[in-house]
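ARCHIVE CARD
Drawer: 12
Card no.: 0347
Subject: one protein chain, sequence and derived structure
Cross-reference: see card 0346
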Amino acid sequence: MSTPDETDLEILALLTANARRPYREIADLVGLSAPAVSNRIDRLGELGVIRGFTVDVDRSQLREGISVLFDLDLAVEFDAIDAVRTTLAETEGVGHVFTTAEGHVLFEASVPNGNVREWLSATIDTDRIAGYDVRLLTDVDWTPDVAGTEFALNCVECDNTVTSEGTVTRIDGDLYQFCCPSCESRFTDRYETFREAPEG
C-alpha cells in the first residue's frame, strides 16, 4: 500500500470543488495520466478517505417546508450520542449532522409542516433531549475544503501512523488500516475469537 501524498491532497481538493470533474482534467492539473488518477481515487476510497460522491442540493429551490438549524442538548450518556446522530442522519430532510465536544448535536433540517416541536418529537425520543435551540435558516452554503490538511491514517491496532508498509483489510463490510501485517494479524485473530465466542 502506498502512503497518501501531496498529489492525493491535490486530487481531493479538485474533487471537493467538483466531484464530477473528469479524470482526464484532473490528470492534466496534477501531472499524471487519467488511469493513474483513477487508481489513486480508488485507493483513497479503499482507505476510507473518500466515502462517496454526493450531490449538493439547494433546498431553497425545492418546496419542502422550512429550513432550520437545531442545537440539541442531549440528556444521555456521551456514548449514546452516536445513536442520536445515526437516527438523524437516516431521517429524511436532515442535512449535515455535527457533534460538539460538549455533547451537543447540531443539524440542519427541513421541517415539512413548519411545526418544529411536532417534527422533533416524531424524529427523536424526546426523553433524550434536555433542551434545544432552533434557528430559522435563510440560506445554506456547504463548501468543504481540504486545504491545509494532512493525511492522518492510524493503525486500528496500535495507533501508529500508517505508512507504505501498511495494509488495509475489510471485515464484515468495515475497512480497517494497519501499520504492518503483524498488527493486521493480531486484530483479525482477536476479531475472529470474539466473533466465534458463545454469547452470554
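Annotation on reverse: The chain is about 35% helix and 20% strand. Helices lie at 6-17, 23-30, 34-46, 81-89, 116-123, 181-196.
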